Predict the structure of Sigma-70 family RNA polymerase sigma factor.
Amino acid sequence: MSFAAPTPSASVDLAPKSFSAKALRDFALIQRILDHHDEKAYAELMAHYQKSVYQLVIKMVRQSDVAEDLALEVFVRAFRSLHTFRPEFAFSTWLFRVATNLCIGHLQRQRLPTVSLSATRFEGEETSFDLPDPTPTPQEALIQLQRIEQMHLAVGKLPAKYQQLMQLHYFEELSYEEIAERQHLPLGTVKGQLHRGRDLLHQLLAPAQRSL
């Protein structure tokens, strides 16, 4: 699949000083896209985030068919606007902002406060009742966005040995056993490092959570 290329002269200075190896990998791919319109770099960048973007979208819209379309649209919009990206934060943070803004727009267009259902007729009269719509309001979605961004920023500040495990557990939602198998680590090591990582993450997130 090809996407609209960014402005040819849109090369940006991607020389961050304190980012994770994953973020540096993304910056290198982005530079290849901006400088050479490298289709392989497009595909690789999309492959890295396709699953996590879909998981974010499905949690917000709660409809699989809609989520698939929106997740694809996220990448279309992101790649068309890639020349506007600035490496003040990791690419993943910027991409998830694109995804959440798209979801909020969708929810604002589609949201109904209640869903009316007609119950069985009783003695010639039709009774109706309302069920609350389970999809989040735009305000709820915005709060969810803020929490997701805080989570990503906080995980990015963790020591390297905790970062990947936390990303696999919280963002890709892998079990302890799946993480141990993927990382070739003993199960006890995975549990211990995730426990320590959670403690550090709570310390980093506590001030931000009090502000919400």
Notes: The two ends are 39 Å apart (CA to CA). The longest strand covers residues 114-122. Residues 157-212 form a domain with the Arc Repressor Mutant, subunit A fold (CATH 1.10.10.10). The chain has two domains: 14-135, 157-212.
